[in-house]
Write a structure and sequence with these properties.
This protein is an all-alpha fold. Helices cover 77% and strands 0% of the residues. InterPro entries: MetI-like, MetI-like_sf.
């Protein structure tokens, strides 16, 4: 078995165990909430005239497990539904399954956060290299200060500043909602243009809030690589500066790929404040609404999805680092 296959098998096994643990915790949290929301829903259905059997079945559909029987039996019903991707029905959206609601919200979160993260990564890495190489000059100082400043501003403050500037003082961009309701949804120029226009401020917020971290991380990594022996050897051999620059950038960027993969995994849960400010119907806003409205099935489903995304990101980051860094492969093969 190859190094990558061994690592993949181990990570998948640990990932499944972690997801089951999170699902278990979510189940018991729902049952531990004061007032027992599952039993409360069951009692309300009985008050509305349902028979006990129909109320039991309706509650099972909503929460994914039966409110009768022992706690162990309820837990087994819940985990059985999880295996078949049946997380119940949303209480606040009658007739819609938790899975369908989560899928609809996720598509609004992934694209803006993904674009913002990748743009900030590319710009931050390039400017981070220059910040390290020119660290004794004014350019290096300016780049380091800009990175520190943007890295220290909370996302929600940055989002509100952008709204004030580009939607109030200079009203050139829409402040909220994902699309103008005047356009018919579909693959047409008006609708796509409206989607892009409304996504500018959220994407810009994601990019600016992450930019500082990438600049500072890349600068630190480059400064570390500059002290390595192979850089000194390359300079003593008289290699062209452009080749030495490529050596530096290629080795310094390796640790950042792991951080990038983890950032992409966290993107599902990291957009809570920004989506609330811009009224963007993504997973972050859905999670806030489910907590406020006590939609426990939707709440536990959102937590589970975010956890699964982080676990998958960890697996991808580790495997990717094994592929791009031969030192890791050689270390594994020697065991």
């Amino acid at each position: 078995m190859t190094v990558i296959a061994r690592r993949l098998a181990g990570h998948l096994a640990r990932g499944v165990v972690m997801i089951l643990v999170v699902a278990t915790i979510s189940f018991f949290i729902v049952n531990a909430i004061p007032g027992d929301p599952v039993a409360a829903r069951y009692e309300k259905l009985l008050e509305q005239g349902m028979s006990p059997e129909a109320a039991l079945q309706a509650t099972k559909v909503m929460y994914g497990f039966m409110p009768s029987g022992s706690m162990w039996q309820q837990y087994l019903d819940y985990m059985g539904g999880l295996v078949t991707f049946d997380l119940g029905t949303s209480l606040t959206r009658p007739g819609q399954s938790v899975v369908s609601v989560l899928a609809d919200a996720t598509k609004w979160t992934v694209l803006p956060v993904l674009i913002g993260t990748l743009v900030s990564f590319l710009v931050g890495v390039i400017l981070g290299v220059y910040a390290a190489i020119k660290r004794t000059g004014k350019l290096g100082d300016a780049l380091a200060i800009s990175g520190s400043l943007l890295h220290g501003i909370p996302q929600y403050i940055l989002a509100m500043l952008l709204v004030v500037i580009f939607a109030t003082l200079i009203p050139i961009l829409p402040p909220d909602s994902p699309v103008d309701i005047l356009f018919e949804p579909g693959f047409n120029a008006g609708y796509i243009g409206s989607l892009a226009e409304h996504a500018v401020l959220p994407v810009l917020t994601y990019a600016l809030s992450a930019y500082g971290g990438w600049v500072l991380a890349m600068k630190s990594s480059v400064v570390t690589v500059l002290g390595d022996d192979f850089i000194l050897a390359a300079e003593l051999r008289g290699m062209r500066r452009s080749i030495v620059f490529r050596y530096i950038a290629r080795n310094a960027i390796l640790p950042l790929f792991t951080i990038l993969a983890l950032s992409l995994g966290l993107l599902l849960g990291g957009a809570v404040f920004i989506e609330k400010i811009f009224n963007y119907p993504g997973l972050g806003l859905l999670l806030i609404d489910s907590i406020q409205l006590r939609d426990y099935g939707l709440m536990s489903g959102a937590f589970l999805l975010i956890t699964a995304a982080v676990i998958v990101a960890n697996i991808v980051a580790d495997l990717f680092y094994t592929v791009i860094d031969p030192r890791v492969r050689s270390g594994e093969e020697s065991r």
